Amino acid sequence: MSETETTEPSLLRAENISISKLTPELIQRAEAEVNEKENWKERDIQALREIVQNEVSLHSQSDDAFLLRFLRARMFDYDKALHLIKQYYYLKANNPELFVPPKQLKCVFDTKTMTVLPKKCPSGETIYVVSAGHWNPRRFTFDQLVAASIVSLEKAAMDEVTQINGLICIIDMTDFGWQQLRRFGPSQAKKMVHIIDECLPIRFKAIHVIHESTLADIAFTILKPFLSEELRQKITFHGSELSALHSIVTADILPEEIGGHCGSIDADQWYEQIISSETYLTENRENYGFKKVADFNQISDFHSIENSLFRKSQTLTQNFLSVLRRTVLELLELSAKLTPMASKKVLIGASAAAVVGFLFYKTQCPRQ
């Protein structure tokens, strides 16, 4: 029996908050992937618990399962695990709008904007699918989108196989257009990257982007300055040719939208799993955290992270305008090959793109 077959049902149980006995295969994988020593695991959990409890300004959840998630996410480095816990609680305290009850996020899952697939890929990773073009800003805000991402990743991180094998993210940019792009500026990009890279106990093994367009290229140009080199190296762009993706994540576990054979994306099953864990998730969010606002500043390098990201955002001027200029020039070149009526429509589109892009940049780009 494979490690996936042995442990996969854990994603389907109502709660998965206790530590399971790992299969021999997973024990070996845990040592290779996250530096976990089976004979030392209890000692490591207790050591982190004592460190966390000595943080007088922090009232953290301290059960074994919670601490083990953070240890695995940071390769059993106590200091890094503690820092991640602090970052998580800082995020929660400073952004309460991102930690609303899961039932308030049903509008996001109803549009099939994101889901975790029921089956893992052959190498054992969990598959997280984001359909960026399904985000309808008229139905839910960017913060609701991020909140749904956070609760999805928190739920996924409750699964021990995911903690050990990691997560593969597939971002489908089909139908991603101006209505999404105009609401995705540097401040949103910075927030998103900071959360997935610095605040949650989840390991992204790879990020695959498919069906990207010119507007999607602009979105990733905005995102790029905030990505760490490690995270940047994990991103692969596939366009509409999915054979390379299917060599990693086989078509027999993928939905039709990604060239798979498992029917259409079903976000309802994932939302139901999140709701099944709502009590556990809500308890952690409501009952734990920093004891007072002043203690947030005890996260020594959070402000340095903010300053670093702000400096990186200054490079967006050249990158963003370069992509926008190329887009407008392509439209102008196209207009010369069309009939007068069609050419007029393209020129209007080019002008609108330039104006919208300029206003978008002026309103979204951070200022000193």
From TrEMBL:
Alphabetical list of PANTHER family matching this protein: ALPHA-TOCOPHEROL TRANSFER PROTEIN-LIKE, ALPHA-TOCOPHEROL TRANSFER PROTEIN-RELATED
CRAL-TRIO domain mapped to chain residues: 104-266
One MF term in the entry's GO annotations: phosphatidylinositol bisphosphate binding
Gene3D superfamilies for this protein: Alpha-tocopherol transfer, CRAL-TRIO lipid binding domain, N-terminal domain of phosphatidylinositol transfer protein sec14p
Protein name: CRAL-TRIO domain-containing protein
Cellular component aspect of the GO annotation: membrane
Species lineage: Eukaryota, Metazoa, Ecdysozoa, Arthropoda, Chelicerata
